[in-house]
Amino acid sequence: MVPLLDFTPRRRQLLLLAVSTLLLASSVHAQIERTGRDGWQKVDEIFAAMGVSEGSRVADVGAGGGFLTVRLSEAVGEQGTVYAEDVNEQSMRQLTQQVEDLALRNVEPILGTTDDPRLPVGELDAVVIVNAYHEMGEYEAMLSGIWRSLRPGGRLVIVDNPPRDSTASRGSQMRAHDIHIGVVEQDLRTAGFEILERRPDFIDTGSGRGQHQQWMLVAAKPDS
Questions:
Q1: Where are the domains of the chain?
Q2: Long-range CB contact pairs, 28-32, < 8 A, 24+
Q3: Which listed site, 53, 69, 152, 185, has its alpha carbon 20 to 30 Å from 30?
Q4: How does strand 107-111 pair with strand 81-86?
C-alpha cells in the first residue's frame, strides 16, 4: 500500500475528497434508516409510481421536514435534481439547514406560495405530494402551477389520508387533515391530467395509534 504522504498534493486532495464523499453518503444513508416511517410509507412504491431514476428532475411539493426530499436526493443521484417546495417558512428554514448539513448538492429548496409552487416551467419528470394536498385551499392554482412545471408525459403522484366521514364537505375534510380520493381525482381530471392508477387502499396497516391509512393517485400530463 502506498503511504498517503507519497501522493502529490493534488492526488492527496482528490483522495481526501473521495473519502469525504463516501463518509457523507454513509451518514445520509444512516439517517434514512433511523426513522420508523420507512416501515409503512412505501417509499419505493411511490418512487416507482413517479418513474424516478438516475438523472430524474423531480419536485417534492409540501416537502415539510424533508422525509421524501432526502430519499429522492439519493434516488435521482448526482445528475438529477430535487426541488423541495413548501409554503411554511419555518419548515423551509429547517429543510434548508438539513440540505446544507448533509451537503445534498442536487436539492434546491423553494419557498412557494399558497397559489404557486414556483417550480421551473416544463422541466420536471415528476411531482409528488404526500400528506399535503388536503392543506391546499387554492388547489386549482397549485395544480395549474404543477401542470406548467411538468414536461409532456410527466407524472403527478398524490398520497393522502382518507376521510373519517366521506360525506363531509371538502372544508370539513380539510380541517380534519384528510380528503376523499374521489374529490382529488376529479380535481386532477378538471386540471387536464390523465389518471393512470387509483389505489384507495394504498396503505392500511396497524391499529390504534400505530394505524396508517393512505390512498394514492398516479396521474400524468398528456404527451399532446
A1: 1-34, 36-220
A2: 28/70, 28/73, 28/74, 28/102, 28/104, 29/74, 31/70, 31/102, 32/70, 32/71, 32/74
A3: 53
A4: parallel
pTM: 0.84
Spatial separation of the C-alpha atoms in residues 34 and 134, rounded to whole Å: 27
Residue length, the chain? 224
Q: Which CATH superfamily is domain 36-220 in?
A: Vaccinia Virus protein VP39 (3.40.50.150)
In sequence order, the 6+-apart residues with CB closer than 8 A to the CB of 38 are 32
Question: Residue holding cell 420536471?
Answer: 124
Cα-based distances in Å from 13 to 7, 16, 107, 180: 9, 5, 25, 55
Distance, in Å, from the CA atom of 76 to the CA atom of 74, rounded to the nearest integer, reads 6
pLDDT in tens, 35-82: 688 888 999 999 999 999 999 999 999 999 999 999 999 999 999 999
Instruction: Tell me how far apart the 2 most distant CA atoms of the chain are, in Å.
Output: 74
Given strand 107-111, what is the order of strands in its sheet? Answer: 107-111, 81-86, 57-61, 124-130, 150-160, 212-220, 194-205
Phi, psi (degrees; rounded to nearest 5) at 83: -95, 115
Q: Which of 175, 181, 142, 143 is nearest to 161 (CA)?
A: 181
CB neighbour list of residue 129: distance below 8 Å, 6 or more residues apart? 61, 62, 156, 157, 158, 159, 160
